[in-house]
Write a structure and sequence with these properties.
It contains three helices and eight strands; from the N terminus they run H-E-E-E-E-E-E-E-H-E-H. It has helices spanning 2-28, 114-121, 140-167; strands at residues 31-38, 41-48, 58-62, 70-75, 81-84, 90-97, 103-110, 124-125. A four-stranded antiparallel sheet has the order 5-2-1-8. Strand 1 (31-38) and strand 2 form a beta hairpin. The protein starts with a helix and ends with a helix.
Length: 168
Amino acid sequence: MHSFYTRNVAAIVLGTLLLALGASQAHAHALYAAHTWQGTLALVQFAYAGGEKPTYAKVEVYSPADSKVEFQNGRTDAQGRFAFMPDAQGQWRIIMADNMGHRVEHAVDVSADPTAQQAAGQNADNAASGATPGVGGFSIPLRILLGLSLLANMALIAAALRRRQKRC
């Protein structure tokens, strides 16, 4: 009976460790995007959560006039940057995808006033605050809560198995 309990606990601990390692690896590759204005040129900076830059990743730009046809496409530079010059007002959509399956979508609002553009460009999508979406679209506090819930449920299962073994 003791070996049955030990094997179950070992399996639960191993499963928890594998889940934790997988989650930390996934979070390390979450993509972030932010843009700034250089006159009428929008400069978009992409980065992984760990700080690495997605070099030479595919980028597509969609104008507010036609959200289905690309206005421009290209690749990021060696520093994970991409620049484009919008020709109309409205919300532009930039999609960056690397060759490893990571993808981020970033909106750039273009107004008639260049000073308003520069102020708006200082705001980053997916900023480092805890309320922003992380991997899988869940906010970081929610992911922490889900992880703690998983650990608590696993502990309850282990306790129930232990109680069941004592009865037998």
